[in-house]
Automatic annotation (TrEMBL):
Annotated protein name in UniProt: FMN-binding negative transcriptional regulator PaiB-like protein
PANTHER family the UniProt entry points to: PROTEASE SYNTHASE AND SPORULATION PROTEIN PAI 2
Biological source species: Psychroflexus gondwanensis ACAM 44
Top-rank lineage group of the source organism: Bacteria
InterPro entries: Split_barrel_FMN-bd (IPR012349), TR_PAI2-type (IPR007396)
Pfam family, one: FMN_bind_2
Length: 195
């Protein structure tokens, strides 16, 4: 059971679909033998199913076929300080996520290749993956295509919608600024010698 305040929850498939197309990298969660498994996998939407692929060396691969799964798509989050508002507020976190539950099934190689081509077409305007690419036949040894049938979904878009319009707009701006600032801080602190 999820905690879903109605003013922060969207069950509109077109909104959720547009979100997934913009932010296709999902956290894939499954349960096997009382152990939780997670991976970060990109998905595309194909006939109201989600299609992706998983590396065969990933331990999650071993039990994923016909498993119930949850996917979480992420767009961002931010701490919202009361100092940004004239009203009497408390600190909060705002965020934009989509949760989706369904059943995962492995797909045949031709459909996986189609999904890889569709994914690059959706995300990359400078590179087009061709079905004749010489590395594609080798992929079947390393990755497995999968599709997730959608059983339930909802967007969790918490942006202070329960406050005034000016508060709502300020909260959206703060989320955007916070994302950029924190990502820049992280990237500037990162070096290859850390790994």
């Amino acid at each position: 059971m999820s905690y879903l305040p109605s003013h922060f929850t969207s069950k509109n498939w077109e909104s959720v679909k547009a979100f997934i197309e913009l932010f296709p990298l999902a956290t894939l969660i499954s349960l096997h033998n009382q152990e939780i498994f997670t991976s970060h996998i990109p998905f595309i939407i194909d006939n109201d199913k989600l299609v992706g692929h998983i590396n065969k060396e990933n331990p999650q691969f071993e039990h994923l076929h016909k498993s119930k799964v949850e996917l979480i798509f992420h767009a961002g989050d931010a701490y919202i300080s009361p100092s940004e508002f004239k009203t009497d507020e408390l600190p909060t976190f705002n965020y934009a996520k989509v949760h989706l539950k369904g059943k995962a099934n492995f797909i045949e190689e031709p459909k996986m290749v189609e999904s890889l081509i569709a994914m690059t077409n959706q995300l990359d305007f400078n590179f087009k993956l061709k079905p004749t690419h010489p590395k594609l036949p080798m992929l079947k040894h390393f990755i497995q295509g999968l599709e997730v049938s959608i059983e339930e979904f909802h967007g969790r878009f918490k942006m202070s919608q329960d406050k005034s319009e000016s508060h709502f707009n300020t909260a959206k701006t703060l989320l955007q600024q916070s994302q950029e600032e924190r990502l820049n801080l992280f990237l500037n602190s990162l070096s290859q010698s850390d790994y």
